[in-house]
Amino acid sequence: MAHSGEIRLLALLGLRLKGFASADAVAEVVGQDPGLIAAELDDCVADGLAVFNPQRQVYLLNPAQGRSEGERLLASQLDRLGVRQRVENAYGRFLELNPEILQLCTDWQICQQPDGERTLNDHSDPDYDAQVIDRLGQLDARLRDVLAELGSAIDRYSVYGPRFGTALRLLDEGNLEYFTKPIIPSYHTVWFELHEDLLATLGIDRATEGSS
User: Fold this and answer.
1) Is 120 helix (H, G, I), strand (E, B) or coil?
2) CA–CA separation, 180 vs 185, rounded Å?
3) Which phi-psi region, left, alpha or beta, contains residue 82 (left: φ > 0; alpha: ψ -120 to 50)?
4) What is the residue-level pLDDT of the chain in tens, covering all 212 positions?
5) What are the structural domain ranges in the chain?
6) Cα separation of 33 and 24, whole Å?
């Protein structure tokens, strides 16, 4: 469990990753106690860093103050721990894998027929699906080294390994929505959240990523 000084960082980060979410959902994505996160999110609302929607019972990050304060806390943590270079190195290795997950998601959703025609995958061919899931498993094995490097630098990255593992296990058990379905913690959802975590931590704009 994070010490009290890190709870705000994690609450703001979790809210950024989820977009809008209940306190329980934010706690789950950052691996923290829901009660601690709920109390911190309420404090963030009081401080103008987040907004609470009572009808939907969800929190939203203030796109100006909340986002910038979250990035400030993340940058401060990097410098305090002296791990910026290690996280940057891991981020570079993650980016090398990113085109592969994008291709896998495309192949999961669209099949190429023998005549070259591309059709939506209706998941009526279990052999095709199994082949794509097997390729995902191979990618996951390579991702583990990146996660280990990140986890050794900052503890919070240790939550991603089990989350990826759960999505892959559910896929293997026939829960096909755990490949790309949004909202639920599918493999692609967790990948997107890890990517956003790295961008937030390193202060990189997703829109201009890789443009330099």
Assistant:
1) strand
2) 9
3) left
4) 555 569 999 999 999 999 999 999 999 999 999 999 999 999 999 999 999 999 999 999 999 899 999 999 999 999 999 999 999 999 999 999 999 999 999 999 998 777 778 889 999 999 999 999 999 999 999 999 999 999 999 999 999 999 999 999 999 999 999 999 999 999 999 999 999 999 999 999 877 776 43
5) 4-78, 82-208
6) 8
Encoded tokens for 124: 């009526």
Placement of tokens 């996951």 in the chain: 140
Q: Which amino acid is at 32?
A: Q
Which two three-digit tokens encode residue 199?
């961008």
Instruction: Read off the tokens for 132.
Output: 């794509």
Architecture of domain 4-78 in CATH? Orthogonal Bundle (1.10)
